[in-house]
Amino acid sequence: MGSITLKQVTKSFDDVNVIKPLDLDIRDGEFIVFVGPSGCGKSTLLRMIAGLEDTTSGTIEIDGKEATSVPPAKRGLAMVFQSYALYPHMSVRNNIAFPLKQAKVAPAVIKEKIEKAATMLNLTDYLDRKPGQLSGGQRQRVAIGRAIVRQPSAFLFDEPLLNLDASLRVNMRLEISQLHKSLDTTMIYVTHDQVEAMTMADRIAVFNGGIIEQVGTPLELYRKPVNRFVAGFIGSPKMNFIDVAPKPGDATHSLGVRPEHFKITTEQGLWQGQVGVVEHLGSETFLHVHVDHIGTLTVKADGDCQAVYGDQINLTAEQAKIMHFDKQGMTIPALSWGGESAA
Amino acid sequence: MATNSSNKTKVIYTLVAWTISGMIFFPILWTIITSFKTEAEAISASPSLFMFEWTLENYTQVLARSPYFDHFLNSVIISLGASIAGLLVAIPAAWSMAFVQTKRTKGLLMWMLSTKMLPPVGVLIPIYLLFRDVGLLDTRLGLVIVMTLINLPIMVWMLYTYFREIPHEILEAARMDGAGIKEEILTVLLPIALPGIASTLLLNVILAWNEAFWTLILTAAHAAPLTAFIASYSSPEGLFYAKLSAASVMAVVPILILGWFSQKQLVRGLSFGAVK
Ligand SMILES: Nc1ncnc2c1ncn2[C@@H]1O[C@H](COP(=O)(O)OP(=O)(O)O)[C@@H](O)[C@H]1O
Ligand SMILES: [Mg+2]
Question: Which among B169, B188, B191 has the least Cβ separation from residue A83?
Fold first, then answer.
């Protein structure tokens, strides 16, 4: 069990409105990622779900039961913090045992659960060390171990991988995904990294300035962003935005083309420009192309792309995959990818 | 050459440090020396530092004349009692100020500190009358209460500063793990803050041990601690420098020893969060 429903929740610090009225249904067993730029209220909302932060108005339901003012200890949720927040004075064993001791679980059962978690997380050799004697990745595992032993109805993660180096981050990302598959428990995962969001999530909620812009599966967000913000936030490198002169009968104010949807052609294309910086990644190549009156476009090309600095090239894009946005920055579905005209 | 000049600075700093320490320590040294002199030598116009007849007479006389161990016991009970009672109040207070901050927390802290700037005579009469009416004059309990109140602002401030150094998230993790406020404070906060709590306790034992204003006024014979015992050698039958010195030495030696053994802890504690 682990469904969480937010109804019109808001949060203000003094007079600052950090979370605008917001509704969200988190389904039992899903892996939902809160993603958005720094300072948009993701952590605040997560902490409200945890009960660490009061809810200014609105209601939070956990498993169908009103939980808005239930203290954190009684919500049955587990949290993994960015700083790991291990108890520095306790051994790894006692860190993991702590929630079980609070729940007055029998010592024999605690022992068994610790062994099981330690095996699962490769911590067996470190059980008697203090957190200070562990590496960042190991500390992260202890924090996860502490969260899983008590079988919570949902896990809350607040940027858990932020303090790890890049390669470790990729590993831990996989481990957490596997953990979700094996536990089948609801996970709410906060990050500002859209790659983490895309790779791990069943569903993503894109935050911006205290509201949720869109909720959907990674591919839905990639293919059918509801507005320019989501379109620009999801996908790496970012979508290119090209302003166009409004035409009568066409609300389009700007176009959006993802770098991977450009084609370099020898014939006359839609845009012509001069190649600037070329980034060779081996498997692919990123070209930064300067186009008069438009600016710099990022183009993803094959790994063996021969273009060099200063080349003049022509660009087209798959018509069907071009996004159209109106004056307010909202997607015009009929004209965009997945819309009727493209289908 | 660089090491040469840095060696020179080291020597200079060391000399300065020793000079200042010497100046601070000299009165104590003088008291200790005087305590081994005869009364005549103690008030001699050309006092000698070491060249005099050393005698233990002052100590035997002081011990024979007054119940040193009763006073010593009073000092221990009052300073320890007040420090422990203070901790019992200051720990929850500092916890709430450090971890459940509101808009007025800072103001409250400043107000608490400002009470330390009030001259104690300002509240002397009301407290004296109050103590007289409820029968707390010349009782250990009365002094424990006064000392607790006097040192509470400092204790709360010190603990608040230590608690602020502890990442919020560790306590929040405890809350998520099912700990109530009691478990959060007892099993997570206190063990982590133990060095700070020990420093607070030590400093307050020393402050309470040395407090002389309230102890002199609120005690007579029964609950008088060592500060009152020293004072008793300064008036009625005239001044007895040598005996006064002996009494002083006996009063400060216990706390000096405590301070000596805990100096590392004290220095670390008093530098607050300055060095992490
Ligand atoms: N305790 C607090 N008091 C006042 N403002 C806060 C507090 N916590 C967060 N905020 C503000 O709320 C906004 C959202 O913060 P946060 O939820 O941490 O953002 P995110 O996790 O998305 O980066 C920020 O502008 C931040 O300054
Ligand atoms: Mg955050």
Answer: B169
A-chain residues within 8 Å CB-CB of B276? none
Q: Give the number of the atom of ligand 1 that is nearest the alpha carbon of residue A47.
A: 17
Report the relative pairing of strands A65-66 and A57-62 from DSSP bridges: antiparallel
Alpha helices by DSSP H, listed for A103-193, are: 107-120, 136-148, 166-183
Claim to verify: residue A214 and residue A273 sit in the same structural domain:
no
A162 touches chain B (CB under 8 A): no
In a domain? residue B17: no
Average pLDDT, chain A: 93
Tell me the average confidence (pLDDT) per consecutive run of 10 residues in chain B, 276 residues long: 75 95 91 88 78 86 88 94 96 94 91 89 91 93 94 94 92 95 94 90 92 87 87 71 89 88 76 45
**β-strand partners of A208:** A211
CATH code for position A303: 2.40.50.140
Closest residue (by CA) to atom 1 of ligand 1? A13
Q: Which amino acid is at A96?
A: I
Option in B167, B191, B192 nearest A83 (CB):
B167
Q: Is residue A211 part of a domain?
A: yes
Exposed/middle/buried for residue B54 (C-beta within 10 Å: 0-12, 13-18, 19+): exposed
Q: Does A146 touch chain B (CB under 8 A)?
A: yes
Q: Per the CB < 8 Å rule, is A87 touching B179?
A: no
Task: Say which range, A19-33, A97-111, A237-251, B42-56, has the weakest mean pLDDT.
Answer: B42-56
